[in-house]
Design goal:
This protein is α/β, with parallel strands linked by helices. Helices cover about 55% and strands about 10% of the residues.
């Protein structure tokens, strides 16, 4: 497993990406890379007025994630990443555009920037997608109690889930592992975490058998 360079976890808000990233990093001895949330200068404003701040937020995330991916390429140890640069474009920015919260010209400008970055980005060696229903997401969001997330609408989460299903359904740039976590509590139940580890081990063994 030491040859595996870049593992990434994808999934909707509240699916458990950060928790699983920490646990897998500890289990496998990987280094964890987290998305910038607490120091994000736009996030709280965005949830208060999505139309005004959506473009600013997405450009901030895109730049932050691009710098993170570039740094991962330079590291010698195996990295597990909390959320991918693809989600910024194919999920969140796309959802804001289809919802009328980003103007078409801004979205097209954003996509041109994203496509330019993609010429320098290598996809993860393994993408783990955490699939969860809306009830699970809402419960998790309420449990962690972030003030700015209290403004998230259920329709927003539903739209994101639809975009995730579309993106994952067509994902073909690297190995993919889909884990339905709706009925899981891998933070507290050892058996749930073990089942995910078994799936990852099976995927990794398959990857290395081809080398």
């Amino acid at each position: 497993m030491t040859d595996l360079k870049h593992i990434a976890i994808a999934g909707n808000i509240g699916c458990g990406k950060t928790t699983l990233t920490r646990k897998l990093a500890k289990h496998y001895g990987w280094q964890a890379q987290f998305e910038s949330v607490e120091d994000n200068p736009y996030l709280a404003d965005f949830y208060g007025d999505m139309r005004r701040w959506s473009f600013h937020l997405q450009v901030y995330f895109l730049n932050s994630r691009f710098n993170q991916v570039q740094a991962i390429r330079e590291m010698k140890q195996s990295i597990i990443q909390d959320r991918t640069i693809y989600e910024d474009a194919y999920i969140f920015a796309k959802n804001l555009q289809t919802s009328g919260l980003i103007e078409q010209r801004d979205y097209e400008n954003y996509l041109r920037l994203f496509e330019s970055m993609m010429t320098f980005v290598k996809p993860p060696d393994l993408l783990i997608y955490l699939k969860a229903d809306i009830g699970k997401l809402v419960n998790q969001i309420e449990k962690r109690g972030r003030d700015y997330e209290n403004k998230i609408q259920i329709d927003y989460l539903k739209n994101l889930n639809e975009h995730y299903e579309e993106w994952i359904g067509g994902y073909n740039i690297g190995p993919l592992l889909v884990v339905d976590v709706t009925q899981m509590d891998f933070e507290k139940r050892v058996e749930d975490f073990s089942s995910i580890v078994q799936k990852i081990d099976f995927q990794l063994n398959g990857l290395f058998s081809d080398l």
